[in-house]
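Readers outside the structure-tokenisation community will struggle with the description of the input data as it stands. I therefore recommend that a typical entry be quoted early in the introduction. An entry of this sort, consisting of the sequence and the corresponding backbone structure tokens, reads as follows:
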Amino acid sequence: MTQSTEQQIINKLDRITQDIGDIKTDVAVIKSRLDGQQKAIEKIPDLAEKVGELKNWRQIALIIITGTASTVFGWFLRSGRM
């Protein structure tokens, strides 16, 4: 091998080492962000359950309102006042 070829290989290895260092830094940043958001991630199932409960209450309210409106409408139809 010539001196030039050896120097090129050393330069490439230095760049690879630097890239690996950059990747490790990026991974550390991502890990710290995930650790910071861990509490919020743990609350997701509780929030999903509460949203599900709200949907159930909306459905129940819709059924009650629809039932009441149809009852009143039927009562008016039977009485002949419409």
Q: What stands out?
A: The two ends are 104 Å apart (CA to CA). Helices lie at 3-36, 38-79.
